[in-house]
Predict the structure.
Amino acid sequence: MDHRLAPEHAQLRRTVEEFARDEVAPVIGDFYERDAFPYEIVAKMGRMGLFGLPFPEEYGGMGGDYFALCLALEELARVDSSVAITLEAGVSLGAMPIHRFGSEEQKKTWLPRLCSGEALGAFGLTEPGGGSDASATRTTADLVDGAWVVNGTKSFITNSGTDITALATVTAVTGRRPDGRPEISAILVPSDTPGFTVGQKYSKVGWNASDTNELVFTDCRVPEANLVGRRGAGYSQFLRILDEGRIAIAALAVGLAQGCVDESLRYAAEREAFGRTIGGYQAIQFKIADMAARAHTARLAYYDAASRMLADEPFKRQAAIAKLVASNAAMDNARDATQIFGGYGFMNDYPVGRFYRDAKILEIGEGTSEVQRMLIARDLGLPA
């Protein structure tokens, strides 16, 4: 085993690190305060090829792998999680279902725009009454005269209401199985389809510079060919997408955890109290040491899950472990960094104030920490 990154991965990491430091860090606070989507930053990310990292060149991608995406997410989240989640959702939730399960025509039509960052895709899974119980889907799609007629509501959907949102892939009940269970399929709905309505933007605790909305579908008609994958396979498809996405969210969480270490080290070397810099006090040293240990351990966890995924080995348990450990590390480090900064840590002018607000969702989104523990337990052979 070799702990060192391959040269191409190391170069990518450095490139994104420089971009985050030089292009994102100086301006993102203003977007955050205004609850504004950073279109210019996203466009630059698109020109860098970040949205196309794990996709084949024939569809406009960079020909890289999922681990490359994770490295980019970590470096972005060291500075800001809003831009990181925009990339994560755009790739792993917006474009990846089409790449994994879409028809050749769907790939040729949509992937080039999504890979360039010219357009964003959304993934319509969660519903107001569903939450973690995605099998309780109430949105329906009825096949009528060669078209799917979609009706229902999706909630907490990232990248769903921007000026460049082009589509949402929606899970919907398309029938009933012989045993009475719902048949869930995935339907691609372009954003300009009549009956596709974007609800009011949520007022969120964190991720203020990212886009999150409710989506409403009212007699929304799309061609039968907009079925993504096999009919009735939507449930298994989104489980695969979420397994992969948990590795990406873990990488993002590691970035936030590492950003807390970075900011705390800087501040500890500058802030003076009782005649010396606070970095000279053992209480602060031990707190930062614990923060570094958490970030390092979480990083190893997502590296391991990603390597298993790329080797086409089972990775469900490792992805859940990575997401659980990394989101815990992000939350713990954000709390400790805020404590180190004292009153300044409570101010949004400082990155750690935003880190603290952004960390909590990492224990909820793409599967709560409780869901991760459930997945780990089941994979260990414990009763369902």
Observations:
- Residues 7-121 form a domain with the Butyryl-Coa Dehydrogenase, subunit A; domain 1 fold (CATH 1.10.540.10).
- The beta strands are 120-124, 140-144, 147-158, 165-176, 182-190, 196-201, 212-223, 227-228, 272-273, 276-277.
- The longest strand covers residues 147-158.
- The chain has eleven helices and ten strands.
